[in-house]
């Protein structure tokens, strides 16, 4: 297993320097297909919508099999991490279209276009992800999250990204 940071010699301690576009260039460089580009797009959109702002270059990784073929690793360290006054989680660690915050629907669509994803697939991904995040209260209740935390966290989700 190699993280994006290790493969590209990116320092995760330098959060404003790296982007989701660079992650997708690495996917292309490794010869992985559009299904992997789409999967990474979905992960990036989820991070934006659900406020996983600890989305640095050590949290995207690749696995090599015995024959030397690479694949995207399963997602990991996917957790709510937003603190508007925090130095690390006030903004996303990786940028999308040059932005680390204040995302709009058009930003997600431009990112999809930049990585070669068709707009219908991007729109469907955004819709599915916003729909899943909308079930936050249900998932949080099942996990035993304190009600006060459920409400506080939910208020920060970017549910408006479904709208154009």
Automatic annotation (TrEMBL):
Residues 4-135 form the HipA-like C-terminal domain. Keywords: Kinase, Transferase. One of its GO terms (molecular function) is protein serine/threonine kinase activity. This is HipA-like C-terminal domain-containing protein. It comes from marine sediment metagenome. Transmembrane segments: none annotated. GO terms for cellular component: cytosol.
